[in-house]
């Protein structure tokens, strides 16, 4: 569970700053669960430079609640969450300082989208939130206003989760369906998993991925793993201590993602899994792609989102997601959102079948 947060302050000397505006978005890795934003009366003067930067002044904050008025709401919305922020050390320090002044010890794990972006989207000219989101086609209405910055950070974080093949983000989570034994607790935890298409991951005590599965109904499939404790499932069930999942929006992306991640992580219980390969039969191996460079567009993970498969020089480069057309308007934007995969016979067969059966929304040519 994540709490994406952005804070605006009075500025001033280190450790003497106070919050003037705060926004928090609660996110479970699939959808937005809750949202809170408020101006905050800091009961002190705002630095003149900060006033010009944010547009927030003492007059605007005169009737705003003081921090102690909203402290409980902040505790509630961030409960059992990892704090996510752009330059997280700053936001977390300010929040801890405000709570310390109230005599409360506020402790959370944090994730910084600046650091994640540098790792997952390297070679950007700037990792400033405004410049980074603009380069990725993520809208940011009013920079240096808490809610607008938090929404932009939320959309950036969703993109980073898609690009995070090393599971860097997952390793920082504090609450992710921890399973200590095959019991009623597992069934309760599985109840939180959506009945949607995607991949699921089983982890052992060492946090190693031991099995990756695919299903059009994640909840039903995972439940069957533990209810049907036969010889095939027994070893997996016994070793599983944690479950996570990843929505894909459609079967093709699920297949591509699964093949890519099995090759990357080599889960012990996937080594003898050949079902996927057997299911993929190519009707016409000599099929020619409709264009030299193009995108295959299909449904995304949410109603207002779409997926794309990127074909360049008739080679499969990868896949990704977008919700605004300008996010795929040029090579730079497309490459920034592309989750790269290594093409092989199985991957090629998946795309060939997709084109033959026309199981997609549309194809967009990238020819000049």
Task: Give a verbal description of the structure.
By secondary structure, the chain is α+β, with helices and mostly antiparallel strands. It folds into 3 domains: 2-169, 2-Layer Sandwich (Nucleotidyltransferase, domain 5), CATH 3.30.420; 176-247, GIY-YIG endonuclease; 294-365. It has 15 helices and 13 strands. It has a 5-stranded mixed beta sheet with strand order 3-2-1-4-5. A hairpin with a 6-residue loop joins strand 9 (294-299) and strand 10. Helix 5 (113-120) packs parallel to helix 7 and helix 12 packs antiparallel against helix 15 (345-357). It is globular and about 70 Å long. It starts with a strand and ends with a strand. Mean pLDDT is 86; it is low at 174-183 and 276-280.
Give the number of DSSP strands: 13
In percent, how much strand structure appears in the residues?
Answer: 15-25%
CATH class of the largest domain: Alpha Beta
Please provide the ordered H/E string of secondary-structure elements.
Answer: EEEHHHEHEHHHHHEEHHEHHEEEHEHE
Distance between the termini: 43 Å
Q: In the residues, how many domains can be counted?
A: 3
What can be said about this structure in brief?
The protein has 368 residues and is α+β, with helices and mostly antiparallel strands. Helices cover 38% and strands 21% of the residues.
List the main descriptive attributes of the protein structure presented here:
GIY-YIG endonuclease, 15 helices, five-stranded antiparallel beta sheet, single chain, five-stranded mixed beta sheet, 368 residues, 13 strands, alpha+beta, Nucleotidyltransferase, domain 5
């Amino acid at each position: 569970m994540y709490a994406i947060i952005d804070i605006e302050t009075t500025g001033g000397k280190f450790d003497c700053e106070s919050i003037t505006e705060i926004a928090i978005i609660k996110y479970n890795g699939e959808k937005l669960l809750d949202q809170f934003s408020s101006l905050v009366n800091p009961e002190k003067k705002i630095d003149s430079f900060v006033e010009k930067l944010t547009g927030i002044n003492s007059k605007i904050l005169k009737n705003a609640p003081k921090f102690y008025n909203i402290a409980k709401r902040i505790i509630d919305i961030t409960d059992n969450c990892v704090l996510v922020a752009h330059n997280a050390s700053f936001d977390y320090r300010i929040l801890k300082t405000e709570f310390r002044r109230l005599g409360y010890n506020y402790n959370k794990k944090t994730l910084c989208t600046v650091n994640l972006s540098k790792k997952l989207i390297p070679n950007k000219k700037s990792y400033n939130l405004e410049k980074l989101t603009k380069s990725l086609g993520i809208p940011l209405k009013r920079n240096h206003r808490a809610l607008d910055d938090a929404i932009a950070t939320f959309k950036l974080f969703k993109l980073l989760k898609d690009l995070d093949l090393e599971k860097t983000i997952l390793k920082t989570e504090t609450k992710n369906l921890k399973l200590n034994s095959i019991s009623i607790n597992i069934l309760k935890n599985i109840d939180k998993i959506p009945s949607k298409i995607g991949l699921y991951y089983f982890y052992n005590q060492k946090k190693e991925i031991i099995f990756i599965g695919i299903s059009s109904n994640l909840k039903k499939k995972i439940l069957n793993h533990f209810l049907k404790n036969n010889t095939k499932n027994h070893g997996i069930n016994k070793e599983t201590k944690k479950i996570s999942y990843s929505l894909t929006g459609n079967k093709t992306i699920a297949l591509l993602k699964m093949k890519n991640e099995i090759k990357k992580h080599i889960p012990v219980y996937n080594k003898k899994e050949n079902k996927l390969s057997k299911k993929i039969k190519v009707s016409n191996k000599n099929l020619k792609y409709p264009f030299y460079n193009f995108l295959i567009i299909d449904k995304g993970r949410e109603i207002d989102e779409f997926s794309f498969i990127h074909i360049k020089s008739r080679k499969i480069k990868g896949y990704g997601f977008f919700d605004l057309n300008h996010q795929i308007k040029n090579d730079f934007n497309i490459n920034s959102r592309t989750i790269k995969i290594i093409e092989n016979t199985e991957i090629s067969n998946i795309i060939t079948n997709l084109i033959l059966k026309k199981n997609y929304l549309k194809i967009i040519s990238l020819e000049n």
